[in-house]
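User: Can you help me understand a structure? I only have the sequence.
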Amino acid sequence: MPLGYQGSYQRVRAHLHDKRTSPQPVTARPPTPRTVAGWILRRPDTLTETEQLQLKAVRTHGPEIDALTRHVRSFATMLTARQGKRLPDWLDAVRQDDLPSLHTLAAGIGRDRDAVIAGLTQPWSSGAVEGHVNRIKMLKRQMYGRAGFSLPRKRLLLAS
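Assistant: Let's start by predicting it. Here is the structure, written out as C-alpha cells:
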C-alpha cells in the first residue's frame, strides 16, 4: 500500500481494545441553567444537602452567579418580610454589580419606586380584584361574538 497503513489488523485491534477497556474518568454533568435557577429561587432551607453543595460549587466558580444569588435572595426576603424600606439600598447594590439583566429590572423598579416600596411594605393586596378581573376577561373572550349583553351578563352572575 503506497499511502496506507503499513501495520497489521491485529496491531490496530490491540490498540483499540486498550482504548475501549481503559477506565474513562467519570465526570459529573454540570447542572442545567434551569436547575441552577431553581436552586437560586427556592428558599435555602428547602434545598437538600446535595443541592446546597452543588449550588455552593456553582457560586464559587462564577462570581456573577454568586452576586445574582445574593441579590435575588435579598429581594425575596424584602418581599416576604415586607421590608420595602430596604429597596433603595438593594437598588444601589444591584447597580454596583456588573449584572445587565438585574440593571434592567432595577431601572424598571426605579421608575415606579414609590409604588414598589408601598407594595413591599403595605399589608393590602389587590390580588383578589385582579383575579376577578382576569376571570371576567376570560368569560368575555369565551363569549366573543355570541348573543348580546344578556348572555355574558348571565354567565358572569351565575359563575360567581
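Now, to help you interpret it: The CA atoms of residues 92 and 106 lie 9 Å apart. Residues 127-159 form one domain. Let me know which part you'd like to focus on.
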